[in-house]
């Protein structure tokens, strides 16, 4: 076992690569004076050991034959760099964990694994509008080694405190090693996808009812917004299938064979959510097309009505225009019944036109 595995100091390795010049990274969304370490515990035979300092936890876990679970929340480059040097984390993975905004993936660095998972939550709203935020995403990164698992969380949701407490009640699962934590985190993330997709389904049903209601509605803006929000969920769910497939089918040193069935179960749930989200996206596309078609039909109906009334109004306009030219010799100018006759012609012609337009559905 190398010095990095036993927790002994080793040669200095840069924790991040040089990055191109640009804007500064936003400060972590943590209260002032609160560090990045959320919780740190050593687990031996499924039991949580007495508290230990994060910098000494790896050595204690190796000596006792257990593993350490270190939870971090939006660490800075300096905070994660110190931990990375102590735990022997690969600099490329550390860089991804610090700067976030990664797609779901699974990477192997020597004997360690680094997995990125996108978290999602549904944002409650009284009414869906063209600017409503429906889905908010965050990230959870997991460093997995033979004697350590480090979770790095970004975003204001996806808290793992409750997960840790539930997992500590399942000693049989924790006895399987650090990969049990990776399974629990992946399972929690996929379950959250299920909840979000079901809540988005309610919004889709509401829009569908609105589009096909007898009343005229303008839902195109809301449809586009919901489709954009659903895209965030698709980006979180879609790429997760391949990493879970690798964990459930391939031989990985830090993942015991007994854990493959657990990851296979998570994979099944992820595929189901992926299909559900894809179905919602297709349904939204169909509703959007129906809304556009209905809007076009409404516009055509309005144009028919306008054209019909314009045709009716053209009759008195034409007659009045002709007899308003002020020529001396015009028919019926001196006839006593000329004026009533003109009105009679106007009324009869307009009535016939109105009846014809009404019968043809133009009015």
Strand and helix map with partners:
Elements: H1 3-6, E1 37-44, E2 47-48, H2 54-64, E3 67-73, H3 77-87, H4 91-99, E4 105-109, E5 112-122, E6 135-144, E7 148-154, H5 161-168, H6 171-174, H7 179-211, H8 220-237, H9 241-249, H10 260-322, H11 338-359
Parallel strand pairs: 3-7
Antiparallel strand pairs: 1-2, 1-3, 4-5, 5-6, 6-7
Helix pairs in contact: 3-4, 7-8, 7-10, 8-10, 9-10, 10-11
Describe the structure.
With 363 residues, the protein is an alpha+beta fold. It has helices at 3-6, 54-64, 77-87, 91-99, 161-168, 171-174, 179-211, 220-237, 241-249, 260-322, 338-359, and strands spanning 37-44, 47-48, 67-73, 105-109, 112-122, 135-144, 148-154. It has a 7-stranded mixed β-sheet. Helix 3 packs antiparallel against helix 4 and helix 10 (260-322) runs antiparallel to helix 11. It is rod-shaped.
